[in-house]
Task: structure prediction
Amino acid sequence: MNKIPLSFYENKDVLAVAQSLLGKSIYTMIDDVLTAGIITETEAYAGKTDKASHAYGGRRTKRTETMYMPGGTSYVYFTYGMHHLFNIVTSVKDDPQAILIRGIIPSKGIDIQKKRRRQNGNHLANGPAKLCQALGITLKQNCIPLSGEIVWLQDFGEKPKQKDIIICPRVGVDYAGEDALLPYRFIWNHPDYKSAKKPQ
DNA sequence: TACACGATTTACT
DNA sequence: GTAAATCGTGTAT
Result:
């Protein structure tokens, strides 16, 4: 059923994985409901040396401990007092790299996603907290393997052409100083996807 | 214990 | 364009 194996996430090149996630489908089976979407926007967080990363400097806390898990583990965290953000841990155990999923095109269970979001159209899941709400992701899905039956990715061979990939700096990481300028954000310039935060 | 703030979204001027 | 919403987490007392 095309499920992506854990070995895919064990790649130490987080930028390569972040870019190759564009076009993959993310599935969730939460509250007995199946929902899915095609990944159209990602951001890489490059571990201990990346000032924008929660694990910068090798920081280990109760929250960041998930980032030190082996590649293919989900990292969900809660922020702004109301939003959940979904990440995929990559690389090997104790190398805290992760990829933030920033946008999807809903593809399965769209009515459910609209109901969860109480929204329609292209505002449904074009942001990292929006897609968590649409897919039903909360802290309950933190630190679980993406090889299971709750959250997983599938590959149908769909992927953007190189010319349709926009690479630009990450969003909302001004606190990271010069690292805020790194080109670690990848957007699929797809006709059915309009990022809520356009580059430039 | 206390406090400042966030890998955001939404509503409002 | 700006501001409010809202609380877990990290770091300092």
